[in-house]
Each structure stands twice: as C-alpha cells, then as structure tokens.
Specification:
- This protein is mainly alpha-helical.
- It has 2 domains: about 5-110, RNA polymerase sigma factor, region 2, helix turn helix motif (Rna Polymerase Sigma Factor, Chain: A, Orthogonal Bundle); about 120-195, Winged helix-like DNA-binding domain superfamily/Winged helix DNA-binding domain (Arc Repressor Mutant, subunit A, Orthogonal Bundle), CATH 1.10.10.
- Helices cover about 75% and strands about 0% of the residues.
- The chain has helices at about 10-25, 25-50, 50-75, 85-105, 120-125, 130-140, 140-155, 160-165, 170-190.
- The protein is elongated, with a radius of gyration of 18 Å.
- It starts with 11 loop residues before the first helix and ends in a 5-residue tail after the last helix.
- Mean pLDDT is about 80; it is low at about 1-10.
Length: about 200
C-alpha cells in the first residue's frame, strides 16, 4: 500500500495502484498524486501561459480530470498505468485550449504580463535576455511553444514529450525542428533591430 510518507516511485505497478485507489475515491491517494505531479504540471502550465494564476488553474484542472477519469484509466490500464505522461498531455492540452480561447476573445496576441510571484528562476527571467527569450517563446504557435517547454524547460526526452503532446516521435521531432527554426529566425530579427537576445 502506498502511503503519503513513502518515497516517491513511478514504477508502473505503483502508479497503477495509485490510480486504482483514486478510482475507488480514496482521497489520500489523490493527495499523493497531487504532491507527486502537481509541481511539474504547474511548471509546464506556467511556461505555456506565462502567468502564475493561470498556471495554478490549469494544474488544478488537470488534477481534477485525473479524479474524474481515474475509473476509466484504471479499467483500461490492465495494471500498466503511466500517470505522468497522461497528466502532462492533459496539462498541455488545457494550456493550448486557454491560449486559443484568449486569442479568439481578444482577436490579438495574448499580451505578456509581469509575473508578480517570486519563482526559483526569477533571477534568470529578470534579466533582459530572459525576458526577450520568454517573449519570443510566447510568440510561437501553441504546439511549438509546448514542444520547447517540454524539451528545454522540463528536459523531457523527445519520446516523452511526443507522448505528452499525443504525437508520434517523428512528428514531434519535426514540430521541434520548426519551433527551433522559428526561434532562430526571431532571435536574428531581434538582433537586427538592435535588441539583445
């Protein structure tokens, strides 16, 4: 039995047991899942949205989807649940949906807002180069932004990032290649305009 005080384990049998307990509406198991996966989901959402409150909402929504979908995950998993990739995919999709809705409502690019909450990487983002890089990443199309966030900020192997985006590996590598090319072009244009990158 997995208890809150036990060391973190991502072995499929442990994840399957955790999902089975959540499917049985065990609130302590749900709290364990939040402790294990919540910080990662928040980081992914923050990198996608650039706003801490939006990131918190998305991370919470992803965890609520786990609560709602746990019975189906448990039923179809046959004891081989990989919870982290499923939660990453849900988080990325929720962020992409919010970005698309914001664009439809405003009719323009989502404006960058200053982050008021101190984060571990605040020193980097406070620099001019960090702000420029963040703005250029935020200007990428949603799926390209997700590819950059998962690969470079979360340091996921391409196979895991592809799974989080529900893509095959070849399609993900093509998406990442396009995202890198778009960033290189944007950096070059910024430097040509006299900005720093």
């Amino acid at each position: 039995m997995i208890e809150s005080g036990e060391p973190h384990s991502d072995r499929p049998s442990d994840e399957a047991q955790l999902v089975a307990r959540i499917a049985a509406r065990d609130e302590s198991a749900f709290r364990i899942a939040i402790e294990r996966h919540g910080p990662l989901l928040h980081r992914i959402a923050y990198r996608m949205m650039g706003e801490p409150h939006e990131a918190e909402d998305i991370a919470q929504e992803a965890m609520l989807r786990l609560w709602d979908h746990a019975p189906r995950l448990d039923a179809r998993s046959a004891g081989d649940v990989r919870l982290a990739p499923w939660l990453k995919r849900v988080t990325v999709n929720l962020a992409i949906d919010r970005l698309r809705i914001a664009r439809r409502v405003s009719g323009a690019e989502v404006p960058e807002r200053a982050d008021e909450a101190p984060l571990a990487d605040a020193r980097i983002e406070a620099s001019e180069e960090g702000r420029a890089a963040r703005a250029l990443i935020a200007a990428l199309p949603e799926r390209q932004r997700a590819a950059i966030v998962l690969t470079y900020y979360e340091e996921l192997p391409n196979a895991e990032a592809a799974e989080a985006l529900d893509m095959n590996l070849k399609a993900f590598e093509s998406l990442l290649h396009r995202a890198r090319g778009a960033l290189r072009k944007a950096f070059a244009e910024l430097e040509a305009e006299g900005g720093r990158a």
